[in-house]
Amino acid sequence: MGTTASQLGKDLLSEYQELTFLTKQEILLAHKRFTELLTKDEKDLPNTRVPMERILTLPELKSNPFRRRICHVFSTCEQKDGSLTFEDFLDLLSAFSDSATLEIKSHYAFRIFDFDDDGTLDSGDLEKLVNCLTGETDDTRLTVEEMRQLISNILEESDIDKDGTVNLSEFQHVISRSPDFVSSFKIVL
Amino acid sequence: MEAMEVDSVFYTDRSGRVTSNPLLDQLPSYQSLLYRRKSSTGGTKRRSSTRARLSSSGSGKWGVNTVNRLEEKQKGQTEQRPIRELAKTMAEKRRDKTQRLVEARELSSWRQWRQSTRRNLRRLKDDAQEWLSSLQLWRGDIHLIEGMFGTGILSYFSFLRFLVMLNMIIFLLMFSFVMLPIIMAPYSSGNTTYNQNDGSICSVYPSSARRGLVIFHEHITDLLSGGGFLEQTYLFYGYYKVDKIHFPSITYNLPLAYLLATVAYLFLSLIWIVKRSATGFKRNLVQDEDRFQSFCNKIFAGWDFCITNENAARLKRSSLLYELKTDLEEERIKQKIKDRTRKEKCRIYVIRLILNLFVIAVLAGCFYSIYVATVFSQEAQMNNTKVNFIVDLINEYLPSIVITLANFITPLLFSVIINYEDYSPAFEIRFTLMRCVFMRLTSIGVLLFSLWSQITKCKEEPCVCGYNHVLYSCWETRVGQEMYKLTVFDFIIIVAVTIFVEFPRKLIVKYCECGLAKWWGQQEFAIPQNVLEIVYGQTICWIGTFYCPMLPAICTIKYFFIFYIKKVSLMNNCRPATRPFRASSSNFFFLGVLLIGLALACLPVIVSVAQINCSQACGPFVNYTTSWEVLPTTVAQLPDGVRTLLFALSSEAFAVSFFVFTCLAMFYVIALAGAHKRVINQLRDQLAMEGRDKRFLIQKLCQAQRLSAIKSPASKSQPRSSRSSPCYHTSFSNNFNEAVFLAHPPPDSSTHV
């Protein structure tokens, strides 16, 4: 794999176009932005992994409360340290792009919100999710009572089979009827 | 050994002997089924319950077969879909792709060719879309706004863009069918016949152009009021005094074209708006039904991932917190409202009644002052008493000033009043908004009504020409001028408010340390008010286009500049509202208000086209009593076959049968919707039942495991490693997830035992 825009071969480019929802311009832009994150020595190596901390300096992710989760979900690293290769990065952008299908988006949203990676959203995940949304500090957090009411409301609305957790199909069902999701689940470089 | 034990519980029924399995008979769904079968009487119920039984006993046959079948099905599905729609990593997608290529080689050449063409077509489509989206107006600006303020405010700006496009198209329509033929006529040896004056008193049109030395400020007055040298230009209705244009090959009927272009632009707007709002409307309909998932929407789709600005992120967080708290509060308030005593209820209803009467009184007062202002302004213009430049201008603009003032004061008043009416917070906002919409749009109606009463009021009744020909020899132009003034004034006000109110306010708040300024705070960018403002402008544009065909062009330019003004104002002067506006609800709200505006705009245009006598001194319709008469006259000249067809289409018989047919179609759709709703409820019940089955089976599984553990203490190791990678599947099928649950013991199994 090449490391500068000119080195991103034509075949590779068209392959990326086929495998992702990104347009040619977007892929080139992504490549440029990704290359900027690499250090000098890394630029010569193919398939470099950029550590999560450096990925998070991107302004598009910097102010996102779910930035660590996003990196973890899209990382293909064995050590689960959230580092991304260029292809992981493209996967990320593809899922967040304008033209990605609702199914893809909701799939990844579920994995991002599934903080403990156990395949369902239980009340612990939901609590973390709400805290991420409202901010972690004590004065921005909901009170215990409010949180309890909120989570029971969410479960009442989304937990169709009443097992106390939201699984992927329930989540996708809820998302398919959520009007704001498609417009808000979007990151464009 | 242990796996065998577990399996033996579930795999005994591989041959299909379901009924004899004692375990499956214990399933909660089966139990309740038996119970229901005893008690159920209705035929439909029985059918649905047998279906439930089939599926529940089917779901008992978990095993390699089912999973395999599912996988095959999955594979079959993925076959048809493009690879990029799979939720897999790049390496996996690449592997899939090569695998598909290998598989494709085995296919017939016809299939191969079809696949490759499909792929090429898709790529072509992608490229075309990319190219089109790069042409889109203000792409970068909108992206920037999105990053800084989120999707709620973004929707306002994309709405503005939509209006720019709409006005441009309307202008092109008017231009190409009305103006272009007149402009082209001299160049293409076209022969233009003008409407001739028949010498009656109705057809006297005194020229309003200034004679002699023109002072500079008079030009400005003309420019702002549409009078003087502007009156006899392409700008206004009166200038189009052409009857027919004879081109070498065809004769162009301008009056007909003028009328049809008017009908066309109204229809075009309607269709475009309906098309745009259709998706939003569908979602709103789904949402309204049993107040579905307001919390889920807020939590799962609450964060705007597009936000790139740290400040905006902080704002978003606090607004989300605020919203969640108020929603939870609202739940409690609703509970409180339910618990009200009768005495309290009476008190609240009396207060509401009194306040509503007060609101009506305020509205009536506003409307009356608009009426008086219009009459006064018209009379002052007619008397032609030139006092001085400023007073004249104020006289000209009096209706616009009064309307703007009324629209400035009443929303403030309404927002105070609503606090005493004790509604739930969400309803409060909606209700205030409804009142404001009503105020804004009806004020135009009142203005038109006052104008109309002036136009049709003569000294000696009834009017000779059907309108007051002495004062309004060309009343359409007069209405056009009024609309032109409203548009210009609206624009001036928007610019002035931004420069002289919002900007100083920002400076005061920023540099003044006193408590008052801090309390006052920066101007909030309130989306509803801003939207109302531009919808008001658009309504005027729709009404005015008939009388002033260049108005869409003016509006296009106006909205184009408003976009930049609002953008600058938003970035520098304003802060986003504390209570955010959701993109979904706002899109629908914008278009809903716009639709109301369109309906309101159609009314005066239709009345003036079909009812009021068109002026005999100017305009394309001099030879006709009303503008509409062009159509019957033209139809009468058509060949026989076409004429009978058109008559048949406009006959009552056709109208009635069409109406009946539409009603039938509507009833069918309603019935279908009802049936779908019932099916959804049934499926939901069934799903809840399956959930109970699942828990029951897990319990059984744990028991079996414990038993086997006691029986064979030698095999202690549990295959737990597989849990590290949870199986995510994009299919909506529930069975699969349950299968996963059984394949891997749940982590909290100890609690079940």
Automatic annotation (TrEMBL), chain A:
Instruction: List the protein's name.
Output: Calcium and integrin binding 1 (calmyrin)
The UniProt entry, under SMART domains, shows: EFh
Q: Which Pfam families does the record match to this protein?
A: EF-hand_7
Q: Where are the transmembrane segments?
A: none
Q: Which InterPro entries match?
A: CIBP, EF-hand-dom_pair, EF_Hand_1_Ca_BS, EF_hand_dom
The UniProt keyword set, sorted, is: Calcium, Magnesium, Metal-binding, Repeat
Domain EF-hand: residue ranges: 101-136, 146-181
- Give the top-rank taxon of the lineage listed in the UniProt record for this protein: Eukaryota
Q: Name one GO molecular function term.
A: magnesium ion binding
From TrEMBL, chain B:
What subcellular compartments does it reside in?
Membrane
Q: Where is the composition biased (Basic residues)?
A: 36-50
| Keyword Membrane appears in the UniProt entry | yes
Provide the residue span(s) of the region labelled Disordered. Answer: 36-63
Q: Which residues form the signal peptide?
A: none
TMC domain spans which residues?
Answer: 474-584
GO MF, one term, reads: mechanosensitive monoatomic ion channel activity
Q: Does the keyword Transmembrane apply?
A: yes
Q: Name one GO cellular component term.
A: plasma membrane
Sorted alphabetically, which Pfam families does this protein's record hold? Answer: TMC
Q: Which UniProt keywords apply?
A: Membrane, Transmembrane, Transmembrane helix
Q: Topology relative to the membrane, per the entry?
A: Multi-pass membrane protein
Domain of life assignment: Eukaryota
The record lists the membrane-crossing segments as: 162-184, 256-274, 349-377, 397-420, 483-501, 588-607, 653-675
Q: Describe the family membership recorded for this protein in Swiss-Prot or TrEMBL.
A: Belongs to the TMC family.
Q: What PANTHER family does the annotation carry? A: TRANSMEMBRANE CHANNEL-LIKE PROTEIN 7 (PTHR23302:SF42), TRANSMEMBRANE CHANNEL-RELATED (PTHR23302)
Q: What is this protein called?
A: Transmembrane channel-like protein
Organism of derivation: Seriola dumerili (Greater amberjack)
